[in-house]
Amino acid sequence: MKRILIVDDSFYMRTMLKNMLTDAGYEIVGEAPNGQTALELAKETKPDLITLDVILPDNTGLDVLKGIKAEQPDMRVIIVSAVGQEVIVNEAMEYGALSYIVKPFSEEKVLEVVKKALEE
Amino acid sequence: MKSREQEYKEIFIAEALEYFDALNRLISELEKRPQDDQVLAEIFRMLHNLKANAKAIGYLQISDLSHKLETAFGLIRNKELSFSDEVVGVLFDGIDMLGELIGNIDGEFPVEPDQVLLRNLDIIVDSLSDSTIELAKVQKFSTSRNLTLSDLIYIQIRKLDHLMNLVGELIIDRDRILSLSRELDHDELKQVSSHLYRITEELQYSVMDARLVSIGTLFNKFPRVVRDIANAEKKEVDLELSGQDIQIDRNILQIMTDSLLHLVRNAITHGIEKPAEREKSGKPKTGNLELSARSDRESVVITLADDGKGIDLKKVRSAAVQQRMVSADVAEDLPDSEVFSFLFEPGFSMAKEVTEFSGRGVGLDVVKNAIDSIGGRIRVESEKGKGTTFTLQLPTSIAVKGALLFEVDSIFYAIPLIHTDSVVALDKDELHEVSDVLVADIKGETVTVVYLHELLNTGEPNMRLGDKTRLQGQVQNIIIVSYNNRKLGLIVDKLYRQQDIVVKPLSKPLDSIDLYGGVTLLGTGKVCLVLDVPAITKYFISKR
Questions:
Q1: ipTM
Q2: Using alpha carbons only, what angle is made at residue B366 by residues B244 and B21, rounded to the nearest 5 degrees?
């Protein structure tokens, strides 16, 4: 079973993502509401994939992405963003994010992006 | 079973209300420090989440309004829009409207966003330079709002109440089983019942713990409230908050909400002076209001301190005389502490005029009643010209305790069952005077026995705890209590029943007496003092 870490500051978003992904048979190894926890959990749980919100309370998603990639260069990271954040998303792709999801997202879109990312 | 839609909705609302409270706090901060990038980033993040979540769940009015506000704050962050008074007004209105929309998701009547407000938002967003277009006045929804706590616990509190009551009943049965196991002297039963004891004890604390919320859920509403009242009163007030992380029973906090709001209103309306007046008396122009909480053993202490004009004792005296609460000559001689207590008398008022926020005839007696109802205490200290401090001492939890009821000298007492070991009836001849105490052989163990009548009613110089002649009657009812492996027999006049009680802390002047842990009301309405077994044991040791 593929293991996923969810990083998002909104409990609502985390719950939605968690439900969608567990329904599809993935294991959620952790949920991080901020960058600090995200970095700790990434190290601790070594997931197969991380979904990463780009706006976090303590630091930006980009910093978290850089931090994760510095420790685990092969980590698969998917960016979760909203309309109007194209600049950040592009930057994230340059730093090694595999793909991105735009809020509000549909279940199909999430599963499609996650499946594809895990195959890479 | 809750449907997933229902679950999403509840989570959305709870989180949205949290964001709403935080936004109110943050925008009040921003008003003071418009250049604070961190505050702006936080506002931005919350509006952003609100927009995304609302869009996902399908509350489009909320997501649209959040989007407009987000855009406006984005412009402010990029310095394309100045944080002027006019703009601030529109943004506050916008956040209020958000609150209305969130609060009415489950409401009977759907709320529509105010069109004037939406247009105002469009105006400030679209006209980047200083706008010449008049911002239309927005109809205010309510100026003296009621505060409601967001349900951060995703469980109905009544379910926790029910759970708490069940735990209370379980504890009574547990103690019965415990004492039966001792009576029967059955080893296996003793083992099982002591395990049961630990489990139920842990259960009780877990349920109590589940009811705790941080006091910040209430405190964080005050920056906005203070700003609004201060604006209406044309005063400048800085609010300092501390101790938001302190935990307290949610129901206690709920009961205290209106009282705190009342005290804060009072402090601004009657306490803190207008800027000009403050400068004249050599104070900084801006008044200071401190709202803080701290833990103090079994209770939470909330303090509200202002640096305003203080309470004029002379005026309190004359108001009390005027309102026929005391005669003029008696009032003159009353000590200050007693004069302050008039403030908490029903109907007492010092307000000369009714303002929008205070002086509506609701006095401090309402606050006092609320605090009494949960077994808390309130104290006021004030110095003319310097300011006023209210100190509220509140229980952390509404705890249910099983207790054994008895009577001494026609007064009801209770002992928490946790400390009750057994009850025996002994003939006077079985009690022996040893030095200055009485002892008895109880199931092969020599136990010190105290005549409660003597201990509770006789002043120290005349107390004869080792004098058998003071006992009344031949057969003595003795409750054996234990504390820290130390047994003590307490001779009582009459024994009643076991009952679960809600212990409330004592109010003055009894609180200075260490032998009582609190007070409870019996079903009959009679007051019953709860003996503090640890204290009585220690007291007795000190007597010896």
A1: 0.84
A2: 30
pLDDT at B135: 56
What are B's interface residues with A at a Cβ cutoff of 8 A?
4, 7-8, 11-12, 15, 42, 44-45, 48-49, 51-53, 55-57
Least CA distance to B13: which residue of chain A?
Answer: A12
Calpha distance B537→B23 (Å, rounded): 53
Predicted TM-score (pTM) of the model is 0.49
**Residue A119 falls within a domain, yes or no?**
no
A74: containing domain: 3-113
Rounded CA-CA distance B537/B544 in Å is 11
Number of domains chain A is built from: 1
Indicate whether A59 belongs to any domain: yes
- B12 chain-A contacts, CB cut-off 8 A: 12
B112: tokens are 């529509």
* CB-based contact A12 B56, cutoff 8 Å: yes
Strand duo B387-395 + B299-306: pairing: antiparallel
B136 or B410: which leads in pLDDT = B410
* Beta carbons of B56 and A19 less than 8 Å apart: no
Q: What is the 3-state secondary structure (H, E, C) of B292-351?
A: EEEEECCEEEEEEEECCCCCCHHHHHHHHHHCCCCCHHHHHHCCHHHHHHHHHCCCCCCC
Q: What residue spans of A1-120 are helical by DSSP H?
A: 11-23, 35-45, 61-71, 86-94, 107-119
Q: Look over chain A and give the mean of its residue pLDDT values, rounded to a whole number.
A: 89
B372 and B417 together in one domain: no
The per-residue DSSP string of B395-407 comes to ESS--EEEEEEEE
Identify whether the C-beta of residue B124 lies closer than 8 Å to the C-beta of residue B38.
no
Look up residue B244 and give its amino acid.
Q
